[in-house]
Amino acid sequence: MDGTGDARMRFDHVSIAVKSIDRAYEFFAKYFPIKLRNARSIDEQVSGSFYWQDFHLGGFIVELIEDPPGKPGFVTRFIDKHGEGMHHLSIETDNLDAIVARLKAGGVRVVDEQKYESGAATAFISPRSAFGALIQFWHTPNWEQAHPKPAPDGLAHFDHVSLAVKDINAAYDFFTRYFPGTKIGHAPHLSNSQGNFALGHLEVAGFKLEFIASPPHQTDNDFVGKFIARYGEGMHHISIDLKDFDATCERLKRDGVRVVDERRNWRGERQYFISPQSAFGVLIQIWDGQG
Length: 291
Hints:
The protein is α+β, with helices and mostly antiparallel strands.
């Protein structure tokens, strides 16, 4: 938990918009050591009703969301526009009012504010203000009663969520300004592996966010620039260290799951990616990091 001026924050989850929670959950349960946190439930927010279900994965929480059958809503609209994939990041706080006041005073667009009889409340930073990322704040009345997490099992570690941005320094300025307590994990720098992208890390609300951008020079493989040209700035991939690295890769390939970009980085560390075509719109980076 981080002290953030008038409010405390802690990262809670990344949410994935899918057409079928059952199918998406089956995929993650088949290839990753996950533990169910909350069974499928229906919720009602300003943006409409939706089903959700979440699970623990490597010390972090992943949420799946879908619209009720026959009742297309904000999840369907998102999928129609962007396809299945990462929808928002969610952060818990003990003082939502202070956070919203600070954001609005700085001209940041805040949307879908809602309060509940329980004392809980929510509000979102619009992607227009946050480099393409929709960021939810969830006010937790009983802050000290944190959700229990499973004990680390050494099988997986959810390392970070990566955002593709045009200007890493501008993203740093935004997060350090409106998320007090943010720490620079790694200053922006050129990738040592291929030199075809720039990257940096921030620790925001106790969680690692990676920012990637086009390099300052022209390159034939500017994958970040191509991503932004097609989709705009926003969430690019999630990164997971996996103990069962080789066996999982073999199982994925055997089952016809598309595995791409198998390689070693400049330090000799191995990685591969699960294509978003096979993983409900989510590009998943897998590192051999738990061995």
